[in-house]
Each structure stands twice: as structure tokens, then as C-alpha cells.
Fold Putative phosphoglycerate mutase.
Amino acid sequence: MRLLLVRHGQTPSNVDHLLDTAVPGPGLTPLGEAQAAALPEALAGEDIEALYASTLIRTQRTAAPLAAARGLDVVVRDGIRELSAGDLEMVPGHTPEGERYLRTVFAWAAGDTALRMPGGESGEEALARYDAVIAEAAASGARAVVMISHGAAIRVWTAARAGNVGVAFAAARPLENTGVVILEGSPSAGWQALTWEGAVVEPAGEGGPAGEALGAAG
Ligand SMILES: O=C(O)[C@H](O)COP(=O)(O)O
């Protein structure tokens, strides 16, 4: 399956750099709506057979223009919502307290999945809910699937599950709003990232540091 993980369009909390992960969350800013409107054109070359969004308003708003352009239903699933910030909810991300959020979630990607976000979920729980939605999509038989999800969730799931993306790579590359990570694989065979925001990701074991971007794709 070809899996396109797309971060939602800009929200007011993104502008204010707040850790805003709760359901239903905010809508999109005018720029976020424009980013969503541009997605059908940005994905024009993709033969999308299924479209998913999380339970948060911002991913459903982002999915709407793509759904309309392709005549697809939006499948809403809680499992692909943002990694919960727990007690750090609405803390500014750049403060020492806020930085604990990214330290915790990338520790999950590095294998410490028993670790729990203060007042929130564990890595085991977070990865399991994300895995379950991807397994559902794979079982549907769709060959190309778009999931409109969230920045931390996409980076951490990809670092945890793609054989050619390491934690350092994903941690160094925040996703822009409507940034796309494209992967190929299956729950049983595993996943390889093909591109990260348009940059080709080197296959594992083909020389050079794993997960090193080679440059702009196509
Ligand atoms: O890192 C953040 O800003 C919050 O976790 C929310 O991420 P999102 O804007 O991608 O949902």
C-alpha cells in the first residue's frame, strides 16, 4: 500500500506555538483553509482510493477539499489524532516544559514505549492506536491511502515503523502544515519512507546514513 501521511492546515494554536492536542480542537486559520484548498492540486498525481482524517476538526477541514475533488468519503478515526500532551496541553512548545512533549514522544520512537506522557498516554498506547487505523486501511485493499493527521504523530509513527527513517532524522524535520510523508509497505512486511516533504528518503542499506534525505524529488 502507498500511504500518504499529511499534516493538517494551519490552526491558531500553530501560530501561537501551543501544544494543542485535545479533541475536537480548533479549526483552521485563513492560511490553513488555503493550504487545504491547495491539497487536491498538490496530490494531483496520486490515484487516491481512500481518505482518512482524525477526530479533530482541523484534519477534517483539511480533508474536505480533497474529498470533494476526488468524490471520496472521509473516514474519521480517533487512532490517527495527535499524540496527547496530557498535563502539557496548551503549554507553549518552545518552553522547557513544552520541550518535554517532544522528548517524550521521540523516546517512544526510539523504543521506550512504556514511557508515559505526564497525565497522558504511553508510547505503547499511542503507537497501537495509530497502527490499528493503518491496519484497517491496508485490510480494505486500497492501493493508495491518504491520512490527514498531525505533526508529532506522523513523525513519531514514521520513525518507529519505517525501516529507513531514524529518530534523529524525524526529530530534525518538523512537518509544515499540509506537509506530506509518503511511505510504501504493509503492516506485515513493514514500511519504507519514499519521500519526506518532497525530499527523497534513501532506502535502508543502500549506502550513506539511513534516513538521509537525498534532495528534492521529481
Ligand atoms: O506539536 C504541536 O504543535 C501539537 O502537538 C499539535 O500538533 P498539530 O498541529 O500537528 O496537530
Notes: The radius of gyration is 16 Å.
